[in-house]
Amino acid sequence: MLKRVVTIVIVMWTAAALTPPLSAQNPPPVTREWEVTPDSELALERGLAWLARNQGATGNWESNDLGLVSLGAMAFLSAGHMPGRGKYGETVDRALGYVIKNMKPSGMLNIADAQRDMYNHGLAAFVLGQAYGMTDDPQLGRVLDKALKLIATTQCEDGGWDYRAKRQERGHDLSLVVMQAKALRSAVDSGFEVRGDVIRSAIRSVREHYKANNNTRGFDERAKDGPGQFTYDGNRGTLAMAACGVVCLQEFGQYDDWRIAKNLEIIADEIRRLKTPKGNGEVPFDAYTAYYVGQALYQVGGPAWRESYPILRDQLVQSQLRRPENPGEDGSWRDTRWVHGKPGHLYGTAVGCFILSMPNRYLPILQEGKIEGLRESLSGEK
User: Fold this and answer.
1) Domain residues of the chain, as ranges?
2) Degrees to nearest 5, angle at CA 243 with 355 and 219
3) Measured between alpha carbons, how far is residue 24 from residues 21, 41, 73, 168 in Å?
4) Digit-coded pLDDT (tens) for 30-65
5) Which spans in the chain are helix H?
6) Is 182 exposed, middle or buried (0-12, 13-18, 19+ CB in 10 A)?
Protein backbone atom coordinates (compact mmCIF):
# COMPACT_ATOMS: atom_id res chain seq x y z
CA MET A 1 0.00 0.00 0.00
CA LEU A 2 1.33 3.42 -0.93
CA LYS A 3 2.25 5.53 2.06
CA ARG A 4 -0.06 8.55 1.97
CA VAL A 5 2.57 11.28 1.99
CA VAL A 6 3.48 13.74 -0.71
CA THR A 7 7.26 14.00 -0.38
CA ILE A 8 7.75 17.60 -1.40
CA VAL A 9 8.74 19.36 1.81
CA ILE A 10 7.92 19.94 5.45
CA VAL A 11 4.31 19.11 6.20
CA MET A 12 1.93 21.66 7.69
CA TRP A 13 -1.56 20.73 6.45
CA THR A 14 -2.63 17.16 7.16
CA ALA A 15 -5.63 14.91 7.17
CA ALA A 16 -5.22 14.46 10.93
CA ALA A 17 -6.80 17.88 11.36
CA LEU A 18 -9.94 16.74 9.58
CA THR A 19 -12.94 14.84 10.74
CA PRO A 20 -12.09 11.44 9.19
CA PRO A 21 -13.96 11.05 5.90
CA LEU A 22 -16.36 8.16 5.51
CA SER A 23 -15.57 5.53 2.93
CA ALA A 24 -18.05 4.74 0.20
CA GLN A 25 -18.61 1.37 1.87
CA ASN A 26 -20.07 3.08 4.95
CA PRO A 27 -23.35 5.00 5.04
CA PRO A 28 -22.85 8.70 4.26
CA PRO A 29 -24.43 11.37 6.46
CA VAL A 30 -28.20 11.28 6.22
CA THR A 31 -29.65 13.19 3.30
CA ARG A 32 -32.18 15.77 4.43
CA GLU A 33 -35.56 15.11 2.89
CA TRP A 34 -35.84 18.59 1.39
CA GLU A 35 -32.55 18.18 -0.53
CA VAL A 36 -33.84 15.60 -3.00
CA THR A 37 -37.09 15.01 -4.83
CA PRO A 38 -38.34 12.05 -6.88
CA ASP A 39 -37.82 14.17 -9.98
CA SER A 40 -34.23 15.03 -9.06
CA GLU A 41 -33.42 11.36 -8.39
CA LEU A 42 -34.88 10.40 -11.76
CA ALA A 43 -32.97 13.19 -13.52
CA LEU A 44 -29.75 11.96 -11.92
CA GLU A 45 -30.36 8.42 -13.12
CA ARG A 46 -31.10 9.66 -16.64
CA GLY A 47 -27.90 11.70 -16.63
CA LEU A 48 -25.77 8.78 -15.49
CA ALA A 49 -27.40 6.56 -18.11
CA TRP A 50 -26.47 9.10 -20.81
CA LEU A 51 -22.86 9.19 -19.60
CA ALA A 52 -22.59 5.39 -19.61
CA ARG A 53 -24.33 5.02 -22.97
CA ASN A 54 -22.19 7.62 -24.73
CA GLN A 55 -18.77 7.06 -23.19
CA GLY A 56 -17.18 4.96 -25.92
CA ALA A 57 -14.58 2.19 -25.66
CA THR A 58 -11.69 4.56 -24.93
CA GLY A 59 -13.54 5.99 -21.94
CA ASN A 60 -13.14 9.66 -22.88
CA TRP A 61 -16.44 10.74 -24.53
CA GLU A 62 -14.43 11.95 -27.57
CA SER A 63 -12.59 14.51 -25.43
CA ASN A 64 -8.86 14.81 -24.90
CA ASP A 65 -9.34 17.18 -21.95
CA LEU A 66 -8.41 15.00 -18.99
CA GLY A 67 -10.26 17.36 -16.66
CA LEU A 68 -13.55 16.79 -18.46
CA VAL A 69 -13.02 13.03 -18.60
CA SER A 70 -12.33 13.10 -14.87
CA LEU A 71 -15.58 14.98 -14.31
CA GLY A 72 -17.34 12.16 -16.14
CA ALA A 73 -15.90 9.71 -13.62
CA MET A 74 -16.80 11.99 -10.71
CA ALA A 75 -20.46 12.05 -11.75
CA PHE A 76 -20.61 8.36 -10.93
CA LEU A 77 -18.44 8.56 -7.81
CA SER A 78 -20.63 11.30 -6.39
CA ALA A 79 -23.68 9.08 -6.89
CA GLY A 80 -21.99 6.23 -4.98
CA HIS A 81 -20.82 4.13 -7.95
CA MET A 82 -17.35 2.73 -7.30
CA PRO A 83 -14.71 1.70 -9.87
CA GLY A 84 -15.04 -1.90 -10.97
CA ARG A 85 -18.20 -2.56 -8.99
CA GLY A 86 -21.84 -2.79 -9.88
CA LYS A 87 -23.83 -1.31 -12.70
CA TYR A 88 -21.41 1.48 -13.65
CA GLY A 89 -18.14 0.03 -12.37
CA GLU A 90 -16.65 -0.49 -15.84
CA THR A 91 -17.69 3.01 -16.91
CA VAL A 92 -15.80 4.55 -14.00
CA ASP A 93 -12.80 2.29 -14.61
CA ARG A 94 -12.58 3.30 -18.26
CA ALA A 95 -12.71 7.02 -17.47
CA LEU A 96 -10.12 6.88 -14.69
CA GLY A 97 -7.98 4.55 -16.79
CA TYR A 98 -7.95 7.04 -19.67
CA VAL A 99 -6.74 9.78 -17.32
CA ILE A 100 -4.08 7.63 -15.66
CA LYS A 101 -2.57 6.23 -18.85
CA ASN A 102 -2.29 9.73 -20.32
CA MET A 103 -0.36 11.26 -17.42
CA LYS A 104 2.96 12.61 -18.67
CA PRO A 105 6.27 11.62 -17.01
CA SER A 106 6.36 15.05 -15.33
CA GLY A 107 3.07 14.29 -13.59
CA MET A 108 1.16 16.63 -15.90
CA LEU A 109 -2.46 15.64 -16.47
CA ASN A 110 -3.01 17.37 -19.79
CA ILE A 111 -2.66 16.10 -23.35
CA ALA A 112 -4.59 18.94 -25.00
CA ASP A 113 -3.24 22.40 -25.86
CA ALA A 114 -0.56 23.46 -23.35
CA GLN A 115 -2.61 26.59 -22.70
CA ARG A 116 -5.01 24.28 -20.82
CA ASP A 117 -2.28 22.66 -18.70
CA MET A 118 -3.35 23.79 -15.26
CA TYR A 119 -7.09 23.73 -15.97
CA ASN A 120 -7.02 20.07 -16.91
CA HIS A 121 -4.36 19.22 -14.37
CA GLY A 122 -6.11 20.78 -11.38
CA LEU A 123 -9.50 19.35 -12.26
CA ALA A 124 -8.16 15.85 -12.94
CA ALA A 125 -6.06 15.86 -9.76
CA PHE A 126 -9.11 16.85 -7.74
CA VAL A 127 -11.12 13.91 -9.04
CA LEU A 128 -8.24 11.48 -8.60
CA GLY A 129 -7.95 12.60 -4.99
CA GLN A 130 -11.61 11.86 -4.42
CA ALA A 131 -11.34 8.48 -6.13
CA TYR A 132 -8.28 7.57 -4.08
CA GLY A 133 -10.03 8.55 -0.86
CA MET A 134 -12.87 6.18 -1.73
CA THR A 135 -10.75 3.24 -2.93
CA ASP A 136 -7.18 3.36 -1.52
CA ASP A 137 -6.05 2.23 -4.99
CA PRO A 138 -2.22 2.45 -4.95
CA GLN A 139 -2.08 3.18 -8.69
CA LEU A 140 -4.28 6.22 -8.18
CA GLY A 141 -2.12 7.21 -5.24
CA ARG A 142 1.09 7.17 -7.26
CA VAL A 143 -0.43 9.31 -9.99
CA LEU A 144 -1.84 11.74 -7.45
CA ASP A 145 1.53 12.01 -5.68
CA LYS A 146 3.21 13.21 -8.89
CA ALA A 147 0.31 15.52 -9.74
CA LEU A 148 0.52 17.26 -6.36
CA LYS A 149 4.25 17.78 -6.66
CA LEU A 150 3.69 19.49 -10.00
CA ILE A 151 1.09 21.83 -8.48
CA ALA A 152 3.55 22.87 -5.78
CA THR A 153 6.49 23.39 -8.14
CA THR A 154 4.52 25.42 -10.70
CA GLN A 155 2.97 27.84 -8.20
CA CYS A 156 3.91 31.39 -9.15
CA GLU A 157 5.63 33.82 -6.81
CA ASP A 158 2.37 35.68 -6.08
CA GLY A 159 0.63 32.45 -5.00
CA GLY A 160 -1.33 31.89 -8.20
CA TRP A 161 -0.81 29.70 -11.26
CA ASP A 162 -0.47 30.29 -14.98
CA TYR A 163 -2.43 28.48 -17.70
CA ARG A 164 0.77 26.69 -18.64
CA ALA A 165 2.67 24.60 -16.13
CA LYS A 166 5.49 27.00 -15.37
CA ARG A 167 6.58 29.00 -12.36
CA GLN A 168 6.82 32.72 -12.99
CA GLU A 169 6.43 36.01 -11.14
CA ARG A 170 2.65 36.30 -11.35
CA GLY A 171 -0.18 33.85 -11.84
CA HIS A 172 -2.85 34.58 -14.40
CA ASP A 173 -6.27 34.65 -12.69
CA LEU A 174 -8.54 33.29 -9.98
CA SER A 175 -10.00 30.57 -12.20
CA LEU A 176 -6.63 28.80 -12.05
CA VAL A 177 -6.23 29.18 -8.29
CA VAL A 178 -9.55 27.49 -7.60
CA MET A 179 -8.62 24.48 -9.74
CA GLN A 180 -5.47 23.89 -7.72
CA ALA A 181 -7.24 24.65 -4.43
CA LYS A 182 -9.72 21.88 -5.13
CA ALA A 183 -6.90 19.47 -5.98
CA LEU A 184 -4.93 20.29 -2.84
CA ARG A 185 -7.94 19.97 -0.56
CA SER A 186 -8.99 16.75 -2.28
CA ALA A 187 -5.58 15.29 -1.51
CA VAL A 188 -5.85 16.27 2.14
CA ASP A 189 -9.29 14.71 2.40
CA SER A 190 -7.77 11.52 1.03
CA GLY A 191 -4.93 11.38 3.56
CA PHE A 192 -2.09 13.20 1.80
CA GLU A 193 -0.03 15.95 3.37
CA VAL A 194 0.43 19.30 1.65
CA ARG A 195 2.94 22.11 2.08
CA GLY A 196 1.78 24.94 4.29
CA ASP A 197 3.66 27.61 2.33
CA VAL A 198 1.80 26.62 -0.85
CA ILE A 199 -1.52 27.07 0.95
CA ARG A 200 -0.60 30.39 2.56
CA SER A 201 0.53 31.86 -0.75
CA ALA A 202 -2.62 30.67 -2.49
CA ILE A 203 -4.85 32.20 0.20
CA ARG A 204 -3.14 35.54 -0.25
CA SER A 205 -3.64 35.32 -4.02
CA VAL A 206 -7.35 34.64 -3.57
CA ARG A 207 -7.82 37.66 -1.31
CA GLU A 208 -5.95 39.89 -3.72
CA HIS A 209 -8.60 39.09 -6.33
CA TYR A 210 -11.33 40.73 -4.25
CA LYS A 211 -12.57 44.14 -5.43
CA ALA A 212 -15.02 46.35 -3.55
CA ASN A 213 -17.55 48.57 -5.28
CA ASN A 214 -15.70 51.58 -3.85
CA ASN A 215 -12.81 50.54 -6.13
CA THR A 216 -10.52 49.30 -3.38
CA ARG A 217 -8.94 45.88 -3.69
CA GLY A 218 -7.26 43.06 -1.88
CA PHE A 219 -6.04 43.86 1.62
CA ASP A 220 -7.07 47.53 1.66
CA GLU A 221 -9.15 47.94 4.86
CA ARG A 222 -11.60 50.13 2.95
CA ALA A 223 -12.54 47.10 0.86
CA LYS A 224 -14.63 45.88 3.82
CA ASP A 225 -16.99 48.83 3.39
CA GLY A 226 -20.10 48.06 1.35
CA PRO A 227 -20.53 45.43 -1.36
CA GLY A 228 -17.83 43.84 -3.48
CA GLN A 229 -16.86 40.54 -5.02
CA PHE A 230 -14.10 38.27 -6.22
CA THR A 231 -12.85 38.99 -9.71
CA TYR A 232 -11.18 37.13 -12.53
CA ASP A 233 -8.08 39.32 -12.65
CA GLY A 234 -8.58 42.04 -10.05
CA ASN A 235 -11.13 43.91 -12.15
CA ARG A 236 -13.69 41.67 -13.89
CA GLY A 237 -16.28 40.43 -11.44
CA THR A 238 -18.48 37.54 -12.53
CA LEU A 239 -20.83 35.10 -10.83
CA ALA A 240 -18.33 32.32 -11.52
CA MET A 241 -15.53 34.21 -9.78
CA ALA A 242 -17.77 35.08 -6.83
CA ALA A 243 -18.35 31.35 -6.35
CA CYS A 244 -14.72 30.43 -6.98
CA GLY A 245 -13.48 32.82 -4.31
CA VAL A 246 -15.89 31.36 -1.75
CA VAL A 247 -14.84 27.82 -2.66
CA CYS A 248 -11.14 28.65 -2.31
CA LEU A 249 -11.52 30.20 1.13
CA GLN A 250 -13.68 27.33 2.33
CA GLU A 251 -11.23 24.74 0.99
CA PHE A 252 -8.38 26.49 2.77
CA GLY A 253 -10.22 26.64 6.10
CA GLN A 254 -10.93 30.39 6.07
CA TYR A 255 -14.53 29.92 7.16
CA ASP A 256 -14.99 33.31 8.84
CA ASP A 257 -13.46 35.46 6.09
CA TRP A 258 -15.68 38.55 5.66
CA ARG A 259 -15.52 38.24 1.87
CA ILE A 260 -17.57 35.02 1.89
CA ALA A 261 -20.84 36.62 2.98
CA LYS A 262 -20.53 39.43 0.43
CA ASN A 263 -20.10 36.96 -2.43
CA LEU A 264 -22.87 34.67 -1.17
CA GLU A 265 -25.28 37.58 -1.54
CA ILE A 266 -24.32 37.85 -5.21
CA ILE A 267 -24.76 34.11 -5.72
CA ALA A 268 -28.15 34.04 -3.99
CA ASP A 269 -29.41 37.01 -6.01
CA GLU A 270 -28.42 35.39 -9.31
CA ILE A 271 -30.06 32.10 -8.38
CA ARG A 272 -33.33 33.86 -7.53
CA ARG A 273 -33.32 35.30 -11.05
CA LEU A 274 -32.89 31.96 -12.79
CA LYS A 275 -35.41 31.28 -15.52
CA THR A 276 -34.44 28.20 -17.50
CA PRO A 277 -36.78 27.14 -20.33
CA LYS A 278 -38.02 23.62 -19.72
CA GLY A 279 -36.12 20.90 -21.57
CA ASN A 280 -33.68 23.15 -23.44
CA GLY A 281 -30.69 21.12 -22.24
CA GLU A 282 -28.71 24.10 -20.97
CA VAL A 283 -27.06 23.93 -17.57
CA PRO A 284 -28.16 26.94 -15.46
CA PHE A 285 -25.69 29.80 -16.04
CA ASP A 286 -23.10 27.57 -17.77
CA ALA A 287 -21.38 24.36 -16.69
CA TYR A 288 -18.29 26.06 -15.23
CA THR A 289 -20.32 28.55 -13.22
CA ALA A 290 -22.90 26.04 -12.01
CA TYR A 291 -20.12 23.68 -10.89
CA TYR A 292 -18.66 26.25 -8.50
CA VAL A 293 -21.96 27.82 -7.47
CA GLY A 294 -23.21 24.44 -6.25
CA GLN A 295 -20.04 23.83 -4.25
CA ALA A 296 -19.97 27.30 -2.74
CA LEU A 297 -23.52 26.85 -1.45
CA TYR A 298 -22.82 23.38 -0.09
CA GLN A 299 -19.57 24.27 1.65
CA VAL A 300 -20.99 27.29 3.44
CA GLY A 301 -24.19 25.41 4.26
CA GLY A 302 -26.84 26.86 6.55
CA PRO A 303 -29.41 29.26 5.08
CA ALA A 304 -27.40 29.73 1.87
CA TRP A 305 -27.67 26.03 1.05
CA ARG A 306 -31.22 25.64 2.33
CA GLU A 307 -32.63 28.57 0.36
CA SER A 308 -30.68 28.39 -2.90
CA TYR A 309 -29.95 24.72 -3.55
CA PRO A 310 -33.58 23.68 -4.23
CA ILE A 311 -33.84 26.39 -6.87
CA LEU A 312 -30.64 25.28 -8.60
CA ARG A 313 -31.67 21.61 -8.32
CA ASP A 314 -35.10 22.20 -9.82
CA GLN A 315 -33.67 24.28 -12.66
CA LEU A 316 -31.43 21.36 -13.57
CA VAL A 317 -34.34 18.94 -13.49
CA GLN A 318 -36.44 21.20 -15.70
CA SER A 319 -33.72 21.89 -18.26
CA GLN A 320 -32.58 18.29 -18.82
CA LEU A 321 -33.02 17.07 -22.39
CA ARG A 322 -35.80 14.50 -22.71
CA ARG A 323 -35.59 12.90 -26.14
CA PRO A 324 -36.13 9.15 -25.81
CA GLU A 325 -35.91 8.73 -29.56
CA ASN A 326 -32.35 10.16 -29.54
CA PRO A 327 -29.97 8.24 -27.20
CA GLY A 328 -27.21 10.69 -28.05
CA GLU A 329 -29.09 13.45 -26.23
CA ASP A 330 -31.75 11.93 -23.98
CA GLY A 331 -30.98 12.57 -20.31
CA SER A 332 -28.11 14.96 -20.97
CA TRP A 333 -27.33 18.58 -20.35
CA ARG A 334 -24.91 20.61 -22.42
CA ASP A 335 -22.54 23.48 -21.86
CA THR A 336 -23.25 26.10 -24.49
CA ARG A 337 -20.55 28.58 -23.52
CA TRP A 338 -17.20 26.81 -23.32
CA VAL A 339 -17.32 23.33 -24.88
CA HIS A 340 -19.39 22.00 -27.79
CA GLY A 341 -20.26 18.68 -29.41
CA LYS A 342 -20.15 15.48 -27.38
CA PRO A 343 -17.52 16.94 -24.99
CA GLY A 344 -19.98 19.76 -24.34
CA HIS A 345 -22.66 17.24 -23.42
CA LEU A 346 -20.09 15.44 -21.24
CA TYR A 347 -19.29 18.69 -19.42
CA GLY A 348 -22.89 19.70 -18.87
CA THR A 349 -24.10 16.22 -17.90
CA ALA A 350 -21.23 15.53 -15.51
CA VAL A 351 -21.82 18.85 -13.75
CA GLY A 352 -25.59 18.30 -13.65
CA CYS A 353 -25.17 14.84 -12.12
CA PHE A 354 -22.61 16.10 -9.62
CA ILE A 355 -24.89 18.87 -8.37
CA LEU A 356 -27.86 16.53 -8.08
CA SER A 357 -25.65 13.99 -6.24
CA MET A 358 -24.25 16.42 -3.67
CA PRO A 359 -26.89 15.63 -0.99
CA ASN A 360 -25.75 11.98 -1.10
CA ARG A 361 -22.42 13.05 0.43
CA TYR A 362 -20.49 10.08 -0.95
CA LEU A 363 -17.40 12.06 -1.97
CA PRO A 364 -14.83 12.61 0.80
CA ILE A 365 -14.85 16.34 0.13
CA LEU A 366 -18.59 16.42 0.89
CA GLN A 367 -18.18 14.54 4.17
CA GLU A 368 -15.45 16.59 5.78
CA GLY A 369 -15.51 18.49 9.03
CA LYS A 370 -13.99 21.93 9.31
CA ILE A 371 -10.21 22.08 9.70
CA GLU A 372 -9.87 23.54 13.16
CA GLY A 373 -7.00 25.91 13.77
CA LEU A 374 -6.03 26.39 10.15
CA ARG A 375 -7.09 30.02 9.94
CA GLU A 376 -4.48 31.16 12.43
CA SER A 377 -1.69 28.95 11.11
CA LEU A 378 -2.16 29.55 7.40
CA SER A 379 -4.09 32.72 6.70
CA GLY A 380 -1.53 35.47 7.13
CA GLU A 381 -3.11 38.88 6.55
CA LYS A 382 -6.90 39.17 6.32
Assistant:
1) 19-212+226-378
2) 155
3) 9, 19, 15, 40
4) 667 899 999 999 999 999 999 999 999 999 999 999
5) 38-53, 66-78, 89-101, 117-135, 138-153, 174-189, 196-208, 239-251, 258-272, 287-300, 302-319, 341-357, 374-378
6) buried
Return all residues near 154 (Cβ < 8 A) that are at least 6 apart: 118, 161, 162, 165, 166, 167
From the list 109, 131, 129, 130, the residue with the least C-alpha distance to 120 is: 109
Checking if the pLDDT of 268 tops 90, the result is: yes
DSSP, res 365: G
Cβ neighbors of 322 (< 8 A, separation 6 or more) are 46, 279, 330, 331
- Residue 211 confidence (pLDDT) above 70: yes
* Fold type of domain 19-212+226-378: Glycosyltransferase (1.50.10)
Please write the tens of the pLDDT for every residue from 89-133: 999 999 999 999 999 999 999 999 999 999 999 999 999 999 999
Burial of 96 (0-12, 13-18, 19+ CB in 10 A): buried
Report CA dihedral (369, 38, 313, 68) to the nearest 10 degrees: 80
| Nearest one of 153, 189, 169 to 18, comparing CA atoms | 189
Q: Would you say the C-alpha torsion 354, 132, 360, 39 has a positive or negative sign?
A: positive
